[in-house]
Each structure stands twice: as structure tokens, then as C-alpha cells.
Amino acid sequence: MLTILLSACSDSKKSSNSDNASESSPVILTTFNLNSIESSATDIKTMSFSWETATTNNNQTTTYTICEKDVSQVNNCNSLGSVTDELTATVAIPSLVNAMSTDYFILASSGSEFEASSEANVSTDEITKMIGYFKASNAGEGDYFGENGVALSGDGHTLAVGAYGESNSASGVITDGSEVSDAGTIDESGAVYIFSNDSGKWVQTAYVKASNPSSYSGFGSDLALSDDGTTLVVGAYGESNDAAGVFMDSSEITNTSTLNESGAAYVFNYNDGAWTQSAYIKASIPGESEYFGGKVALSGDGNTLVVTASGDNNGLTGVITDGSETTQEIGTASASGAVYSYSKNADGSWVQTAYIKAPETTVAGFGFAAALSFNGDTLAVGTADEQVYIFNASSDIWSQTTYLEASNKSNNDSFGSNLSLSHDGNTLAVSASKEDNSATGIFTDNSESTGDISKENDSGAVYLFTNSSVGWTQSAYIKASNTESLDYFGRSIALSGDGNTLVVGAYREDNSATGIIIDGSESTATGGDIDTATDSGAVYLFTNNNGVWVQSAYIKASNTGAGDDFGDGLALSNDGTTLAVGARLEDSSQTGIITDGTENKQTEEGGDDTAYTSGAVYVY
């Protein structure tokens, strides 16, 4: 359950905030032990502590503080909470990854006296039990809950999960749980589930459908949340309404004209305790199979929105701000792609500010991916042609400033298929999930550009770029610690707000391990990488320590299963301590938020697996 590191800490912490108590003062506190640390079944990422009494005087009040050991803090204590005259406590911990290497102790205080308990750490099994396991409230076969559509607010307290294959016939925002019993169907109309732990416990707060649900609309295929978690944008790349522009009058509900797979985006806002749809957005020049809404990106402040249409066929180039794309559609650049930029007015309405194309008509799939900085003045756009374009905005006017390619560019690597920007817009992560180099680890010497040592087809890679006074430069080339063919490392990526934490999904990785591994054993034969869970998936966490990137953790599901595609979608809080990972093909028929680790038991006992490809999300 736990490992006792010391039978008791030294007396050096007594009276640590002042000189030792005077010789005439009675000694109230004595040495004591931290007895146990266990996962709590009441919520995710919570631990229950129990300890011995530290007082020699039952009439004296004693405060017990639960501490993460941090030698930079007073009494070496980073406080997680405190109780008075109690010998047990349950507290939330910021990061399960950090908990793997953290020592804990209890600090007793009474008057001017302080006494620290023995120290302990948490077992791997207990940490695995603390992983949050989220299922849809109405989990069903083929829902794909948690594919690409996973988003977290900056503080990690609001989670939105898309399930674009969900087939309920409801519309709008539902908070009464009726989606569980609704028997109506609209095939693959899609849904979004919103969860919150603002009350101190994770709960589902809303079930969101399009205002005009339709079959195969892809609603929920991509999501974006503002930093404060009050603005949600939902992409629906397969939506087929023929409208054009921004609508706030709900007219999309009665418009029955069609333009197949033209696509749409929906904006929802949280005000006065309720989510409501505030805008329905279509391309200014919608066309069939243009997939507007395939990717959506929202600035952290919630005031700038970009929506991609990778199938756009207009032959225009560059940045257009006067709306002339609606009258100058050349239509000679098939699937060249486009990106639409919108700004939010003071009254909450949205207005299109730019229609953005690649600078050359020969570029394919412009809008393959997109990312925005916190204030919305830096935009990165990926293409199907292995390129990334950087745009900067001044007074809402976009201009292209940089063009990026991989240092070891090769066809069909999918460079630019996923992007993530730090808040300040100066660190950019670019994935190439089909890159073939057999290397492992992190490279900063540009050696990858001299040629692959050998091939691991579609193993994948991630490239880090930084912007400085000399412009954009590649700062790192990152591979998995256990590179293998067909793992697709880079299928999903996310940077923390400060750009110092990076998570990378490899949704077809095959290791059968569970939970969090920080000792590097995933890369060795003795570590158990015996490939017995084909396409189970994995996530890799990297941190920047004083300018040096290192892999800090290798992360698996709590109930690893073959074919689950863990890592297909992911999201990271601003400080990098809360991580949400989607596994779109997970099959359990469980519903809701599982906090007691029973998903692990289902795996051990064979499980039910009766909700084929219903999907799940794991929170760390």
C-alpha cells in the first residue's frame, strides 16, 4: 500500500517557525508515524491518509497538515490540506505523474511546536486506482467517445468530450439526464459531454447536442474550450445545411436545404450556471465536402476562433478580409483548403475577420490542423503537404510570417497533422505521426536530418520549434522511448500553457502495461514490452528542465485493452498537472465517472466489453 521511508523524522522541525520552545514550556508533541496512504473511492486523484497521534496531551489542540515533501518550502511542506485533532484525511493531489516520485508526510503543530511524521510514498497500484475513468452517461456501441474531441479548461476543472458517433435524436443542451432513456435515433448525429469538478467532485454537468442534429454530421469530432472553461466550440465537419455566415437566431433549426458535408461549428457559453448555444457558424462560401469544422481552435481568452475547411476548393491565395471570397470563388484548386477567422464582439456576437488560404494554389489540405496562442494573435496552420504556416495578427489583420518544414522532410510523414502552441505563441509542437525513423528519445543536434539509421514505418515523431529574436528555429526532434512501426507517435499532442510540458499520444502502441511508468522500463525487454495488447495505445509526457527536454513518464490506461486506441485524443491543463486522454475504441458498457478503480477489475476478470467502440476518457 505504501513504503515507509523513515520511522520518524528528526526533531529538527520542532518549533521551526521560531527558536526552540523555552525549557519551561511543556513538550506536547512526540514522534509519530504516517500509517497508510490509499486511493480514495470517493473521487479521482484523491488519497486517504491515516497516521498516529502526535500529542502527549489530549487536552491540547493539534493541527495535522498533509504534506508533499518539498525542501524549498517551510518545514519542507507543500501543504495539501489540514485537519484538527483528526488522524485521517482525504485530499486531492495535483498530478498523478508527480505523485509517482513524491514523498509524503504529516506535519503536526501545536502552539509553537512542530513535529513531522515518518515519510512515505504511494504504491503504483494505488496510483493506478486514482486514475479517473470517464464514460458517456449513455454509452453505446460506435459512439467513439474521446476520439479527437477532448478539451480541458486552463485550470483542469472543466472537461469536454466529444462522441461524434453518438446517435441520440435529442437537440440542444440537456442537464436532467434524460439522454440515458431517450430511445430516439439519428445515426451518428454526435454529442458532447461536459464534466466539472468545481464543486470539489467530478460530475457530468451537461449533455450537448446540435440545435439541428442530423445523420453523420460529425458533431463533436473536434472541440475547443476557452481558458476559463466558459466558451465551448464544437466542430461538425459532416453537417449539411446550405446556410452561409454566422447565425444567432436559431434559424438553422428550420432550414432544410442541404449542401452535403459542407460542415458547421457551434459555439456554446456558460452563464449563470447554464450552458446555452450562442452561435451557429457556417463558411462564408460553403461547398460540398469542404468539411468546415474539421478542426476548431479557440484563443485562451475566448475572443478569437478559427475554423478549418480542409476540403475548400477556392483558387484564391493569401489573407482576404473584405469578404470578396464570396464573389471571387475561382474553384480551380481542388481540396486546397481554407481557414476562417472570427472575433467576438463586446456583445458576445461573432464576426468573420478573415478568410485565409495558403500563399500558393498548389498547396493541398490547408487547414489539416490549426492552433492559436492565448491572446489569439499567433496562428499555426498545418497542411496535407507536410507544411506549417505561421500567421500573426495586428489589429485583427492576419499576415503570414513563417513557413516550417521538418528537418528530415519525407513524403507521407503527416508533418503538420497536429499542432499545439504555448500561451505566448513562441513554442510550437508539430506532429508527424507517420514519420519512419527508428531512433528513440530526444535529439537537439539535428542528427535526424542526416538520414534514418533504419526504418520503423509510421512510428511517428514530434518536432518542437521556438520563436526568438532570430525567428523560428527547430529546438528538438522527439521520438518515443520504445519506437515501433505503426505506433503513430504524434497522433495527438498538447503543450502546457508555459510550453514546458508536452504530451504525445501514440494510439497504436502495443505494450500491455497499465498506469504510469517513470523508470523507463517500457523501453526494455525486461520492462514487459511484450506487445500483448495490440493497438492499446500509450501517451508520453515530456518536460523542459532548464532548457533540456526529458521524458518524464510513459502513460497507459488503467485497464489497458487491445484495440482501444488510447491516446487518440488528449488535453492538458495550463500547468501540465491534469491530463485527459481519450480511448475511442474502448468497449466497456460502464457509464458515468468511475472513481473506485473497478474498471481495472473488469479487465482482470475479462470485463463485459458489450459496448463495442463506445470509448472512454482517462484523467490523470
Describe the model:
The chain has a five-stranded antiparallel β-sheet with strand order 40-41-43-10-42, with no helix packed on it. The protein has a domain at 2-127: Immunoglobulins (Immunoglobulin-like). It is an all-beta fold and 620 residues long. The radius of gyration is 26 Å and the shape is globular. It has three helices and 43 strands. A hairpin with a 6-residue loop joins β14 (191-196) and β15.
In short:
The protein has a domain at 2-127: Sandwich (Immunoglobulin-like).
Secondary-structure topology with pairs:
Layout (H helix, E strand, L loop, with lengths): L1 E3 L29 E6 L6 E6 L11 E7 L7 E8 L3 E5 L3 H4 L4 E7 L2 E4 L3 E3 L1 H6 L2 E3 L15 E3 L5 E6 L9 E2 L16 E6 L6 E6 L10 E7 L5 E6 L9 E2 L16 E8 L2 E8 L10 E7 L5 E6 L9 E2 L17 E7 L5 E7 L12 E4 L5 E5 L5 E7 L2 E8 L10 E7 L5 E6 L9 E2 L17 E8 L2 E8 L10 E7 L5 E6 L9 E2 L20 E8 L2 E8 L10 E7 L6 E5 L9 E2 L3 H7 L11 E4 L1
